[in-house]
Amino acid sequence: MRTLKTPVDIFLYSRPERAANYKKGRIFAGFEVSILEDVNGESIGGNDVWFKDGNGDYLWSGDFEASESLSLPSASLPWWITEYGINKLWDLELKGEGVKIAVLDSGVQLDHPDLHISSENTADFSQSQQAGVDDHEGHGTHLAGIINGKHNENEVFGMAPQSELFLAKVTSNEWGDDPKLLANAVDWAVSKNVDILSISKGFEKHDDRLFESIQAAVQKSIIVVCAAGNFETDRNRILFPAGFDHVLAIGASTRTKAVQANSSVASRIDLLAPGENIYSTFKESSYKRMSGTSQATPFVASSLALLIQACRKKNIDYSLLFFKTLLQNTATPAVTSDRHLIINPIKAYENL
Predict the structure, then answer these.
(1) What is 104-127 written as a DSSP string?
(2) Which side of the chain, N or C, has fewer Cβ within a 10 Å radius?
(3) Which of 105, 134, 195, 270 is catalytic?
(4) Which uninterrupted H or E stretch holds 319?
């Protein structure tokens, strides 16, 4: 006998076939099952191995190989998932399927156990002495987990787990040192026909080359989501490309729906999103809580992925202006600032 934990909701059958009349019930994700033996039954996707449990019921072994756990009890989900209705969107089968998101940052740990990213979807523009997309800072890996992290016992819950993620390394320093490298990465993402750009890098000054690349992405109907920046003093500033026109400029909010302590409060900001103590993947196969507009940005990008999938299902045309209007009209005012609005993904969906 061996014990296995269920990674997803799994249906029980009275026989190792999936005919409807043999279905008995289901076991919810996270529960343990005692397996007596393996038996052969109906083949599903080339896998005909079924597990027989101590009650004489059968469970298809392929479910235990699933990488996502999308129906976890809400008690095990973090506040930025449950309090913003992301799990309710999952229940509607909105998980980002078919949507491409590019994160342009410090790289990614490709072999992190809680990430599933194809090396073919990565590129290195950093001109670093350490060639390749490996993330020596951990910043990009953290952002990747917010979007695409596996759902398992490590409590990392990617918001758009079925989206296709693209990663470009533009620097090994959080704030970057050359906007032209970021511009090159934007051009690459455009060539990959991504739907959303998530950029948590920023620069103090306007750069013409970066501006041109961002506008080229906009012309391709790519929705560009940018971190407004974190500042100890003079928080009315904003970084570029968040300061450009035709992008979504994102600030950070707290669980109590206040503006996060170091977030930019510039009038240019379009939306705030959760950016306080966000738990996600980190370098060296570890995990970490991080705060700031960097974390708020992939939250918005992920929310947009779910909404884009919904629009496609409903045959609704969309654009940056469409989503900006929708998200602002359904947003919640920050408790510490009348002029700043916090994204409300579930309400946005209900108003499609």
Answers:
(1) EES---TT-TT----GGGEEE-S-
(2) N
(3) 105
(4) none
Report residue 41's pLDDT band, with 50, 70 and 90 as the boundaries.
Answer: confident
Identified catalytic residue from 136, 139, 142, 151: 139
Q: How far apart are CA 316 and CA 156, in angstroms?
A: 31
DSSP state of 244: S
- Indicate if 139 belongs to the active site: yes
Contacts of 19 (CB under 8 A, 6+ apart): none
Domain 2-65 carries which CATH code? 2.30.30
CATH for 74-350, among 2.40.50.140, 3.40.50.970, 3.40.50.620, 3.40.50.200?
3.40.50.200
pLDDT tier, 197 (very low <50, low <70, confident <90, very high otherwise): very high
- Helix, strand, coil content of the chain in percent (nearest 5): 30, 25, 45
Structure tokens at 203: 């620069």
- Write the pLDDT tens digit of every residue in 213-241: 999 999 999 999 999 999 999 999 999 99
Segment holding 120, helix H or strand E:
none
Per the annotation, the verdict on 105 as an active-site residue is yes
The 8-class DSSP code of residue 259 comes to B
Looking at the DSSP assignment, which residues form a beta bridge with residue 11?
26
Q: What is the mean pLDDT of residues 148-152?
A: 83
Question: What SS3 state is found at 335?
Answer: coil
Determine the Cα–Cα distance for residues 340 and 332; give it in Å rounded to an integer: 9
Checking DSSP bridges between strand 286-290 and strand 278-282, what pairing results, if any?
Answer: antiparallel
The reply to whether 294 belongs to the active site is yes
Answer yes or no: is pLDDT of 71 > 50: no
